[in-house]
Design brief:
heterotrimer, A mainly beta (652), B alpha+beta (190), C mainly alpha (148), A: 652 residues, mainly beta, Methylamine Dehydrogenase, Chain H, Immunoglobulin-like, 2 domains, eleven-stranded mixed beta sheet, globular, B: 190 residues, alpha+beta, 5 strands
Chain lengths: 652, 190, 148
């Protein structure tokens, strides 16, 4: 008897201790992290990070490069928005990159970076990113970390489910979020359901050069196509698009597009599409879209307006598209590394739905359809579903995978990351995010070879995570260690714009290809000069071209006379340096655009239109040497019609 | 056995042909801003940087202190040295076939003398570059000279200059040793 | 012996209460009595009890109308479901304290109050926005709702 009482007392005491412990940990939020978390993100001075992370700049329109695990910002790559710092979109060489069928556009909303893949693995050659507002896809070359190509998408509005790639980067896709009249025309918005369409674009990528071309579009009903992911392994050849607003509402979507219990994941068989194209099933539709390409040799971009697009209509191409019903307004559609499971995250539900690719093929083969939508067969939910993750959270958005058979899903409403096991659908762990996580990223987490060491949570709300900076605060991201059974929060870091998605890759796959300089002998810029002796100033009517060189620590020429008010002066500046990390900047007083930031061996051009007579200084903006402050010059501007002769010199 | 000294001497002579492909000497400049260092190579027919662009960067650095630009055109030596090497190769082959000890000794002595002259010329260049400074240089350090070391390391302003023999110099030593061995074998065979 | 057991259980119980107390907002008082009956529940937040004068304070109600029109009408229509539910008839569904707590402390309400949680799901997870009103302003809106 005595022993029993004692046992009970011990048990009660233990329970009490457990309560105190759990109480304490709840109260302390996440503040009481061990010193080992600090050590895990500490990259000592002079050391380099293990991974690159490419994080979308959201409404900044750009792409940021961070190192993991330190989370340090390494570079902001301008993509869809002009950037005065680099002269991007301001200098003559990059202006054509931002051309569209609507003319020059200085801004966009960049959402999802996606690395190129070979054999289902990230290969570190290019990173693609979508522009959402004026629908476009850009390609960033990872030997330069610069935007080298932008292609516009016709028949689209809001390029959101983009630019996800296939296993060998055969295609990057671009599904439209907003239905639009196809072709665009004056149309009553009330006719949305009958007259509007949603295009899914397939952009072919040249395996050598990376050059993009719009191969074909599948013209779908005007649902809102949200995200996408390619099949891989056994499901290679298919592309899966999530959709919402299958109600086809055109007003107050927050209510009206949330009525159906299930929306669709559209499964597109792109290999079949290639057959239909070969059979001549495509309609050649007139369209206007820009294709802009930067040539590394001439260091100049050109913009070409394209006028036609191949369109496939699902009702004419049996077997091209199937719908898989998925609860409720699925956001992420994510394919596990084997390619068997297609996971839909119904953002207005608690649970995740995993469809089985094998089940899907089986249902298609046996024609087990539950009717059709606009001629597209709808599969039975019960036939395709392989498992449901009873998450215990709310608002699942997006799932990535590790290399140990686990999946990680972000939950916006309950603000957490939930780890679960593929196949058993059991929840293994959950960790809070601060606050309201959108997307998450595991390096290689949407490829066949994830590197499941870290996870980055990209949050939608920041509130009190950093020092206050007025009403507008930076975006917040969090780094977790996912190598163990339990996820461990390591670090908070601010990001730019609103990061929608990110990609990560082992640094070793990028470092060997990263260029240090442009070789002068390879510079084929039409206005390049290769040595100071060639520097000159040439007038042709009102156009004056200054052929200038820069090298530590002077410009040649640095005294220019004979410019007149009303002239259009092009400064073509070649940086003669051939040493790593010796850029020269160039800025001239009164320039209405920006500076130039010229890398070694590169030529860039600034257009300057002086408004008033006077003598204006120009100087190097990038501290280049001990005599950087001496790196300057003058340009004399005479009144309109004056006959001051064109002269130039340096040191004479 | 009679063939061995001949073959060794022939090897000694022919080995020198490799001097046309590898540098004799290497000069390095390192500083915190240049973690990989700037490198410059002396070949028998000229100065090179192995395509790294370092020579240009060395000249950019040098111009701040008024050093003369290193320009291959300024060195007539590079027209003569290849001829000397060819002369050594040809005479070496002939002496090897003649199998005369005294001729081989003569070859070694001439070779060694040329080597010493070469090092002296090299020192002269270094002195000239290090001391003949433009009076209008941007950075003037009173009493400073920028002569790199003939052999070893030396601090020059923010740089550490290193000057060391490269593959070619070692080839020369091997060639000389082989010739000496050939000379020794011929003595034994008598 | 028995006394010791009771003591231990007592400590344990106080721990449980203390623990759950610390979960709610520090300025919030738990009024979870009958949380499942919306008419009796006072919700979670700073308002624990209000006395409503049988006579409506028209000045306060006018002020409340002004605030409602400025800060609430983007999501609420008086007599129909919109982004959120209509205020007409609200006194037949909720206690006055609950209404004020929902206005003043919506984040905690939609996370913890069973009625608010249900409401959130019913309205497609469109969360009640915190418009950062003072208690006085919320009270004025309540008074305005009484006139509807």
């Amino acid at each position: 008897m005595k022993n029993k009482t004692l046992l009970i007392r011990i048990l009660i005491s233990l329970l009490g201790i457990a309560l105190i412990a759990s109480c304490g940990s709840q109260g302390s939020n996440n503040g009481a992290l061990g010193g080992d978390a600090a050590a895990q993100v500490y990259v000592a001075p002079g050391e380099q990070d293990e991974f690159y992370a490419f994080i979308s700049g959201g409404f900044s329109g750009q792409l940021t490069v961070h190192g993991l695990p330190s989370c340090r910002l390494l570079k902001t790559i301008p993509v869809f928005s002009v950037d005065g710092e680099k002269g991007y979109g301001f200098n003559e060489e990059t202006k054509p990159l931002l051309n569209t069928s609507h003319g020059f556009i200085p801004w966009d909303d960049s959402h999802h970076p996606e690395l190129s893949q070979t054999n289902g693995e990230t290969d570190g050659r290019w990173v693609f990113i979508n522009g959402n507002n004026t629908p476009r896809v850009a390609r960033v070359d990872l030997s330069l970390f610069e935007t080298v190509e932008i292609i516009e998408l016709p028949n689209s509005g809001g390029n959101h489910s983009s630019p996800f790639t296939t296993m060998n980067t055969e295609y990057v896709v671009a599904g439209t979020r907003f239905g639009v009249p196809v072709p665009q025309k004056d149309q009553s918005i009330k006719n949305y359901a009958s007259k509007f369409k949603g295009a899914l674009s397939f952009i072919k990528v040249d395996p050598e050069s990376g050059e993009m071309s719009l191969a074909f579009q599948v013209l779908m009903p005007a649902f809102d196509y949200d995200l996408a992911h390619a099949g891989k392994g056994k499901s290679h050849g298919w592309m899966f698009f999530s959709s919402y607003n299958t109600e086809e509402s055109h007003t107050l979507l927050e209510v009206n597009a949330s009525q159906n219990d299930k929306d669709f994941i559209a499964a597109v068989n792109w290999k079949k599409a290639e057959e239909f194209l070969a059979q001549g099933k495509a309609h050649k539709m007139p369209a206007r879209y820009a294709h802009n390409l930067f040539d590394e040799k001439t260091q100049t971009a050109t913009s070409t307006i394209m006028t036609e697009v191949n369109v496939l209509l699902p009702e004419e191409c049996p077997g091209l598209v199937y719908f898989m019903p998925t609860p409720k307004s699925p956001h992420g559609v994510d394919v596990n590394p084997t390619g068997e499971y297609i996971v839909g995250s119904g953002k207005l539900s608690a649970n995740l739905t995993a469809h089985s690719f094998t089940n899907m093929l089986d249902a298609i083969e046996n024609e087990k359809f539950d009717g059709d939508a606009y001629g597209i067969p709808i599969l039975n939910f019960d036939d395709t579903v392989a498992g449901v993750v009873e998450s215990g959270g709310l608002g699942p958005l997006h799932t990535e995978f590790d290399d140990r058979g686990n999946a990680y899903t972000s939950f916006f409403i309950t603000s957490e990351v939930v780890k679960w096991e593929v196949g058993t659908w059991e929840v293994l762990d959950r960790a809070p995010s601060y606050y309201s996580i959108g997307h998450l990223m595991v390096p290689g987490g949407d490829s066949q070879k994830p590197e499941g060491k870290y996870l980055v949570a990209m949050n939608k709300i920041t509130k009190d995570r950093f020092l206050p900076t007025g009403p507008e605060v930076a975006q917040s991201a969090q780094l977790y260690d996912i190598s163990g059974d339990k996820m461990k929060l390591l670090y908070d870091f601010p990001t730019m714009g609103e990061p929608h998605y990110a990609q990560g890759i082992s640094a070793g796959r990028i470092i060997p290809n990263s260029k240090k300089i442009f070789r002068l002998e390879d510079n084929e810029h039409p206005h390049a000069i290769k040595n100071e002796a060639e520097s000159k100033v040439v007038r042709n009517g009102n156009t004056v071209r200054v052929y200038m060189t820069s090298i530590r620590s002077h410009f040649a020429p640095d005294n220019i006379e004979g410019i007149r008010v009303g002239d259009e002066v092009y400064f073509h500046i070649t940086n003669l340096e051939q040493d790593y990390d010796v850029p020269h900047g160039f800025s001239v007083m009164g320039a209405q655009n920006a500076e130039l930031l010229i890398m070694p061996g590169q030529t860039e051009t600034l257009l300057w239109k002086p408004l008033y007579e006077g003598v204006y200084p120009f100087y190097c903006t990038d501290f280049c040497s001990a005599l950087h402050q001496e790196m300057q010059g003058y340009v004399r501007v005479s009144p309109k019609g004056s006959n001051t002769p064109i002269t130039w010199n340096v040191g004479g | 056995m009679r063939k061995k000294p001949t073959i060794i001497m022939l090897t000694a002579a022919l080995l020198l042909l490799l001097l046309f492909t590898v540098p004799l000497w290497k000069i390095t400049l390192s500083a915190p801003q240049y973690p990989d260092g700037l490198k410059m190579y002396l070949n028998i027919d000229g100065i090179s940087d192995g395509g790294t662009g370092d020579l240009k960067n060395i000249n950019i650095m040098n111009h701040y202190v008024g050093m003369k630009e290193i320009d291959q055109e300024d060195f007539k030596e590079f027209e003569i040295i290849p001829l000397i090497v060819i002369g050594l190769v040809l005479s070496g082959i002939i002496f090897a076939l003649l199998k005369k000890r005294s001729l081989i000794l003569l070859w070694i002595v001439i070779f060694a003398l040329l080597g010493i002259i070469g090092l002296y010329v090299f020192y002269q260049w270094e002195y000239e570059y290090g001391h003949n400074l433009d009076p209008k240089a941007a950075i003037k350090v009173p009493g400073a000279a920028y002569q790199p070391p003939l052999l070893g390391k030396k601090e020059i302003l923010n740089f550490i200059a290193g000057s060391y023999p490269h593959i070619g110099a070692y080839l020369i030593l091997i060639s000389m040793s082989l010739a000496a061995y050939s000379w020794y074998l011929l003595k034994e065979n008598k | 012996m028995k006394l010791a057991n009771y003591l231990l259980i007592g400590i344990l119980a106080s721990l449980i209460i203390g623990c759950s107390g610390s979960e709610s907002d520090s300025n919030g008082k738990q009024a979870a009595v009958n949380a499942n009956d919306p008419m009796l529940s006072k919700g979670i937040g700073p308002i624990s009890s209000i006395k409503l004068d049988p006579k409506i304070d028209q000045t306060m109600a006018n002020k409340g109308k002004e605030i409602y029109e400025l800060k609430c009408t983007a999501c609420h229509k008086l007599d129909e479901k919109f982004i959120g539910p209509p205020p007409i008839g609200i006194f037949e569904r909720r206690s006055p304290e609950w209404i004020m707590n929902m206005i003043l402390n919506p984040e905690e309400m939609i996370a913890k109050d069973p009625t608010a949680v249900k409401l959130l799901a019913e309205y497609n997870f469109a969360p009640m926005a915190n418009q950062n009103l003072t208690e006085e302003e919320a009270r004025a809106i309540l008074e305005y709702f009484r006139t509807l």
